[in-house]
Design a protein that fits this description.
The protein is mainly α. It is 70% helix and 0% strand.
Length: 57
Amino acid sequence: MSLVPLALGGVLMALPVSGLPMGELQALNRELGRLCSDPPREALAVCRIHARLVRAL
């Protein structure tokens, strides 16, 4: 199990969304979208989290 999804989720949850730079969030969303269009097995958990976040917005 990779710690990357846990670390990323922890960082995102620790910061108020209004305090995050919108350009960086959009860039992260684009990159995750590219990654998750054909994810390697190691990225499946990250892609599931990304999908839940996109649906929640």
